[in-house]
Structures are given as structure tokens and as C-alpha cells.
Design a protein that fits this description.
The complex is a heterodimer of chains A (about 240) and B (about 230). Chain A is an alpha+beta fold and about 240 residues long. In chain A, about 40% of the residues lie in helices and about 20% in strands. In chain A, helix 1 packs across helix 2. Chain A is globular, with a radius of gyration of 22 Å. In chain B, about 60% of the residues lie in helices and about 0% in strands. The chains are: A alpha+beta (about 240), B mainly alpha (about 230).
């Protein structure tokens, strides 16, 4: 018996079967691969933290290198006060991206992880940051030297910025290298000063300004906003120390 | 079952002349980008760097070849009223699977691709080939059609990205070619050419595609419409 393919019943039935089959396949793929993806993401995070203090690692050796260089970590609240009882593991697990995007969490309730690293006998503070680019989230790490004023290095990343334009915050080495050239998060009195990201600012020798990305103005502004909002909290923590 | 089904024509060889044409035709005479003017959106978006163009071509190859086969296998079951939705579901699912698998097993690659994997869904070539070819053809020719069209798409993508990366950033595959004379970088350090930022912006992709179409049509008069 031939089935009438144009009948409403067949059409609806086909749609239901298709959706159920596709849904099952996708759910199975997603669930089956989730543990592997999470492990990858955790490793990537460690690589990023190490990258912020210019230590290269690969997916193979990252756990080992991380243990060697990252000596401590804890979480501070939005007023810069250390939250007692939380250790390095907690700081590592804290998903600031999720907190930032969750409108249910007031900015005052956000938590801020801080990692303490040791490199060539030098103590460094690694500050993770999250913010908004043009198309989606951007994030980064700033490493501050032991005097809690000078920036040692910075590293930025993004999810969906335009390749060749906003995405250059990650790819274009010279952009990140600007932060290694005597930039500071505070003035000489230890007060917080924001770092501006604008055209032509880098060459001026200003310790609180870097050059933006041509064609990536909104992403550059996003980087600026992200640094201002986050570093403010950490500076208040450093002041209290 | 009707009688005609049993009296089949002798089996066609896998790479018959007709099947070979399926792969070769889209490369030049029936190029999906320059002749059918499909997939322009992604040609604008991801031709800033050659590497991205190559990676995009690889991803589209997987989705289009496999999607064509899946649609072709289902072609006699799909109700015509919802066929576009069915095609969309197939593309979207394949793209999600590609994305998930990449994230799990090739995390570095997945990171490099980032948005491009999702962008494949918006590629009109894929829906176009599903609708125009796979809905009416057997799986094997559909598979070849998918490969041919992706390669045709890829050639244009790579050509455009070579022009844009070379004149926009002075590099090819990230390797400096037109470098800075003062800093002594690049293969041909020149002082008469400064990187043109306009090349990086989307309008230049359109203009470059236009120039490719112009060159192609002036070489091949058969492509010029009479009106």
C-alpha cells in the first residue's frame, strides 16, 4: 500500500520521528563527549593562567607545570576582602564567566579568584578577568608583580570576535606585549588608575594607556571596561594587604 | 512495487564520466560562488586569512558531503511541504556534531575555528545542494556533488583570502611576506607598500569576488547571459 506522503498525518509523523531521532543522537553525542570536553576546558584554563606569566605549556604537561609554578590561590569578594576557608582548588573551579553573565548575581556578590605564582624566584599575582566584546564574551589574565603596582604581562582571549579585527586582542602579539612595557595598575600613591585602550596611546609612554586595535574599537573598549571593573577590586585588595 | 524497478540499467561505474563531471563542473563552469553566487556571506566573513579559508573549506566538505548523503537516503520519505525544515535540521545537527567532536578530540582546532563551525549553517551552498541535487539523486552522486561543490567554493575562498591577507596584513598563512623595511621583517621588505586596512574589511572581499567573476567570464564567454 502506498502511503500518501502529502497527507497531514504523514507530515506530522515524519516531523516527530525526525526530531526525536535527531534529538536522541545529539543528546547522546553531547553527553558522551562532555567529560572529555570538561577535562579539556580545565586544562585550557590552567594553560591560560600559566600563559599570563609567560610560561608555555602543552596539553600534555600542563598539570605538572601548573603544580610547579602556581603556589597558592584564593578568592576575594567585591570589596577586596579575602574569603576565608577557600583554597587554590576553589579558585580554580570558580567560573567567573558564569557569575558575570548571570543577572541574578548582583555585581557586589561576584567573587574574584586570585592566583599566586612563582617564576624565577619572583612572586606574581595572576588576575583573571571577564568582559564583553562586540559579539560575545572576552576574557583575559593580568599578571602583577610583587610590588602590586607594575604589570608583568597580560593575555586576552575571546569567543566570537571578528577574525582580523576584534580577534586581534588574542592573535596580535604586539597588542598584548604593550602591557609588558612598564604599565601600572596604580599611580605612585597606590591609588587605582584605569588603563585606557585607545588609538595612538601606546607610543606616548603613558603607564596607563595602550594602543587599541584598528577596526576593533568595540572590542578594545570591552577590554578597557573589563580591566577597569576587575582591577579596581584587586587594587582594593592589594591596598588592604 | 512496480515492474520497472526490477529492470535496472547496467550498474554505473563509480567514477563514470557523468560522476566525474559532478566533481569537476563546480570547480569552474558551475562554480557555486562565482557562477551561482551562493555562499557569498561566508566568503566575506572568513577570507581575512588563508588559514581560516582552508579550515572553513574542510568543515564545509564534511557537512556538505555527509549531509548530501543523508538527504539523498531520505529523499523518498521526506514530505515535500516540510522539506526545507528537514534539510535545515540535517545541516544544523551535522554542524553541532562536528563542533562537539572537535571540542572533545581536537580542542586546539576547535578553538581556532570558533565561530566558523556555527557559520556553516548559514552557508547557502549547503541548503542549495540539498534542495537542488540530493533531493533527487542517489547517495553516491550526491556525495560526489558535495565534494565538487565544496572544492569549487574552497578555490574561490582561498583565492580571495590570499589577496586579502597579502595586501591587508602583508602575510600568507601568517608568514610575513610584505614586511616592514625599517624593522627588516618579511620576505620582500618594501617601503612602497603599506598594508591596506581596507583589504581586511568586508567590502574588499566583495570587490575581490567581483574581480574573480569578471576574469572568469571574460575567459569563458559561455557564462555570460544574453540579456
Amino acid at each position: 500500500m502506498a502511503i500518501n506522503k502529502e497527507s497531514n498525518g504523514y507530515t506530522i509523523g515524519f516531523a516527530i520521528v525526525l526530531v526525536v531521532v535527531v534529538g536522541t543522537i545529539l543528546a547522546a553525542v553531547s553527553m558522551g563527549l562532555k567529560p572529555i570536553q570538561q577535562k579539556n576546558a580545565a586544562k585550557k584554563k590552567r594553560m591560560d593562567i600559566l600563559g599570563a606569566i609567560k610560561i608555555e605549556s602543552t596539553r600534555q604537561n600542563v598539570d605538572e607545570v601548573f603544580k610547579k609554578h602556581i603556589v597558592d590561590g584564593y578568592i576575594i569578594d567585591s570589596k577586596g576582602k579575602k574569603i576565608e576557608g577557600l583554597k587554590l582548588e576553589d579558585a580554580e573551579k570558580l567560573d567567573i564567566q558564569k557569575q558575570f553573565r548571570n543577572s541574578g548575581i548582583a555585581p557586589a556578590d561576584r567573587q574574584y579568584p586570585l592566583f599566586i605564582a612563582e617564576k624565577e624566584g619572583q612572586k606574581l599575582f595572576i588576575i583573571p578577568m571577564v568582559g564583553k566584546g562586540l559579539w560575545g564574551p572576552i576574557w583575559g589574565y593580568i599578571a602583577v608583580k610583587e610590588n602590586m603596582i607594575d604589570i608583568q604581562a597580560a593575555k586576552f582571549d575571546h569567543k566570537t570576535e571578528t577574525p582580523g579585527l576584534g580577534a586581534e586582542i588574542k592573535v596580535y602579539k604586539a597588542f598584548q606585549q604593550q602591557f609588558e612595557d612598564n604599565k601600572k595598575i596604580c599611580d605612585d600613591n597606590g591609588e587605582f588608575v584605569k588603563i585606557t585602550v585607545t588609538k595612538g596611546a601606546g607610543a606616548s609612554g603613558n603607564a596607563h594607556a595602550v594602543d587599541g586595535i584598528t577596526g576593533g574599537t568595540i572590542t578594545s573598549k570591552g577590554v578597557e571596561e573589563m580591566m577597569e571593573r576587575t582591577l579596581k577590586v584587586y587594587v582594593s585588595h592589594f591596598q588592604a594587604k | 512495487m512496480s515492474e520497472t524497478v526490477k529492470t535496472k540499467a547496467p550498474k554505473e561505474p563509480l567514477f563514470s564520466k557523468k560522476n566525474r563531471k559532478l566533481v569537476i563542473d563546480p570547480l569552474e563552469d558551475n562554480n557555486p560562488v562565482t557562477v551561482q553566487v551562493l555562499g557569498i556571506c561566508s566568503a566575506l566573513a572568513i577570507t581575512v586569512q588563508v588559514e581560516q579559508a582552508l579550515v572553513m573549506t574542510g568543515s564545509v566538505l564534511f557537512v556538505l558531503a555527509l549531509g548530501n548523503v543523508v538527504i539523498s537516503l531520505m529523499r523518498n520519505l521526506i514530505p515535500s511541504r516540510i522539506r526545507i525544515i528537514v534539510q535545515l535540521v540535517v545541516v544544523a545537527s551535522l554542524v553541532i556534531i562536528v563542533n562537539e567532536v572537535l571540542k572533545a578530540f581536537l580542542p586546539d582546532m576547535a578553538e581556532k575555528l570558533s565561530v566558523f563551525v556555527g557559520l556553516i549553517i548559514t552557508n547557502c551552498i549547503i541548503m542549495g545542494r540539498f534542495e537542488a541535487f540530493a533531493m533527487a539523486q542517489k547517495p553516491w552522486p550526491s556525495f560526489l556533488d558535495g565534494i565538487g561543490n565544496t572544492l569549487g567554493y574552497g578555490i574561490v575562498l582561498v583565492l580571495v583570502s590570499i589577496v586579502r591577507e597579502l595586501f591587508g596584513s602583508g602575510t600568507l598563512m601568517g608568514f610575513p611576506i610584505l614586511g616592514d623595511k625599517v624593522e627588516g621583517t618579511g620576505l620582500f621588505a618594501t617601503d612602497w607598500y603599506a598594508n591596506n586596512n581596507l583589504m581586511i574589511l568586508p567590502p574588499m572581499a566583495l570587490i575581490t569576488v567581483g574581480i574573480i567573476i569578471w576574469v572568469q567570464r571574460s575567459r569563458n564567454k559561455a557564462l555570460i547571459e544574453d540579456h
